[in-house]
Design goal:
This protein has helices at residues 3-19, 25-40, 43-62, 77-104, 107-131, 139-152, 156-166, 169-172, 185-203, 208-238, 244-249. With 256 residues, the chain is mainly α. The longest helix is centred in the C-terminal third of the chain and has 31 residues, at 208-238. The two termini are 22 Å apart. The model is unreliable at 242-256 (pLDDT under 50). This is EcsC protein family protein. InterPro entries: EcsC.
Length: 256
């Protein structure tokens, strides 16, 4: 086990604990606030968000737009993740600029933020997967990407459920529906929307929206990138690429 793998053992253990936290009382209060915010948002905005999520997720699963060629070069985990971190920084910077520009114009340009930002985030996930050597032409790998996305943008209760699938992916993937129409789109869409509604409502305010858009896009794009990193680290662990016994000594909680 390399020194780098020993180093990330602690990071991975901390991430796993965060993914498995028990939902707090405050989570229920936040959910009530999100429901209230939903009722305040213009119907047109709801329609735009719904359509964007539906069409883009279709593209993720069936289109070639996001597909990236998997890396076949034999490299250490440290080399792979240096490249992954560079990609996260690049996409985060792009998302930050996009959020500032679209937020500056208020409601009309704010509508454009949803498809643009969602495209940036999805492209980043495919790029990260390819860097780890994953072939995203595989339908199940695209489902994995959608699960990573949900893990980053869901309530704690839903996050716990998604984590259980991701942490034992090689077994769980065969239990997922082969028909994409059976995928739980409703939960996928609602969790994502609820997670973003407050921030995106503020982004629709001219002037202030530029600052909010830049901040929110930066913070959440970076979070998604780190979520993806840890999800793929966990898969490498579960397939034996990383020495699981040494990681146990690093206080890593292994899936049962």
């Amino acid at each position: 086990m390399s020194k780098y793998e020993e180093k990330i053992a602690g990071e991975l253990a901390e991430w796993q604990r965060a993914m498995q936290r028990t939902p707090s009382v405050s989570n229920a209060a936040i959910r009530r606030l999100q429901t209230k915010i939903n009722s305040l948002l213009p119907n047109r905005l709801h329609q735009v968000i719904t359509k964007v999520i539906k069409e883009l997720t279709r593209a993720v699963l069936f289109g070639a737009e996001f597909t990236t060629k998997p890396s076949t070069e034999v490299r250490s985990l440290m080399d792979i993740e240096e490249q992954v971190k560079d990609k996260i920084n690049k996409y985060t910077s792009t998302a930050t600029a996009e959020g500032a520009i679209t937020g500056f114009g208020g409601f009309v340009s704010g509508l454009a933020d949803f498809p643009l930002w969602l495209s940036i985030k999805m492209k980043m996930l495919f790029d990260i997967a390819g860097t780890y050597g994953v072939d995203t032409r595989d339908y199940k790998e695209r489902l994995f990407i959608l699960h990573v996305f949900q893990l980053a943008f869901s309530s704690q209760k839903r996050r716990n459920e998604i984590y259980l699938i991701i942490s034992n992916w090689e077994v769980q993937k065969d239990k997922l529906p082969g028909d994409i129409h059976a995928f739980d789109w409703r939960s996928f869409q609602q969790e994502y929307r609820d997670h973003l509604d407050l921030a995106k409502l503020l982004q629709l305010i001219p002037g202030v929206g530029a600052v909010v858009g830049a901040y929110v896009n930066h913070k959440l794009t970076n979070r998604l990138g780190k979520t993806a990193m840890n999800a793929y680290r966990l898969r490498r662990l579960n397939t034996g690429t990383i020495d699981s016994e040494n990681l146990k000594k690093g206080s890593l909680r292994l899936p049962e």
